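Annotators were shown the component list below and the corresponding predicted structure, then asked to write short factual statements about the assembly.
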Amino acid sequence: MDSDSNKPDPHDPTWSSLPSSDSTFFFTRDDDNDLHNTHKITDFTWSYNSSDLSADVEGYQPSDPPTTTATASGSSDSHLLPGDQTSDIIPPNPSASSSSSEDLADKNIVVLFKIESNIKGSYDYEVKKKGQKRIRQPRFAFMTKSEVDHLEDGYRWRKYGQKAVKNSPFPRSYYRCTNSKCTVKKRVERSSEDPSIVITTYEGQHCHHTIGFPRNSGFLSHEGAFLGHFAPPMSSHHQSPFLYQGMQFSHDSSVTRSIAQASISSASVQQAHHQQQAPSDTTDSPSSVSQQLPPLSSGEGLLGDIVPPGMRNP
DNA sequence: CGTCTTTGACCTGCGC
DNA sequence: GCGCAGGTCAAAGACG
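Structure shown to annotators:
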């Protein structure tokens, strides 16, 4: 019964589903995880593909190995309704993060959230469009406290649309993976309630590697080197060095990698920002985010490219 | 010249 | 059927 207490129960008043568009649900817990009021790191990952639904959830503590791991699994063959799917999914254990909430609040990072439940109760639903069937793929959304709207995640994206969102002063941007064989899309929008939070929704799964050696883009060159450390080949089942982040990837979910990479990118930005704001603050845990990353040259690389000039140290 | 962003038009689903 | 909102297309322009 203990494990059930961590499941989002629609009848449990301590769990709530934040309103969001379409069929996306952000589960949070009023007593501990109010995304609008707290800035906690609660890193966890999801593995999700067409034949198997599973999730690895890990509480993250800066100085300790992951203390909480939960796994939920299911099968698309079971024809679960959306509610059933999400109720099978175990969100991060609030207690695992609460022990370090003071430190984590300083990191100024929000993470994230899984989701996905498909419209109309079907796992994959099809929509006829000009004689063709369009398959709506599973979606994953997460929230990141970031000043950067479009979080880098190791893939190249082409923006194909932007729309104003009702009841929100911030537009929603639509991106598509630039790989012609890849159908992954993502939406990026800012929370209307907390403009510092970026909501990114991925749809689909990459069928290719991240960008290892991109074109002559300064950012991507650094990023490629960065991801070269972190992103295993899709065929690899070795443990990812992302364990440094308290994350663990299961199977081959490139979407999961995208999410985690974006989260780390954001974490790096926020960490840089944090250091810039309080350069003399040495009270951070020695295993804070940036210190767990492979060394990057000072002011260069990922941080140097992501962080707006105004945020950088001179 | 290739790539990417912008942006108005268009398409689709849904509620009334 | 109509209107609204979300999502997508594609032409035009910007940029390196």
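Statements collected:
1. Residues 45 and 249 of chain A are 6 Å apart (CA to CA).
2. Helices of chain A lie at 82-88, 94-98, 101-107, 218-230, 254-277, 289-292, 301-306.
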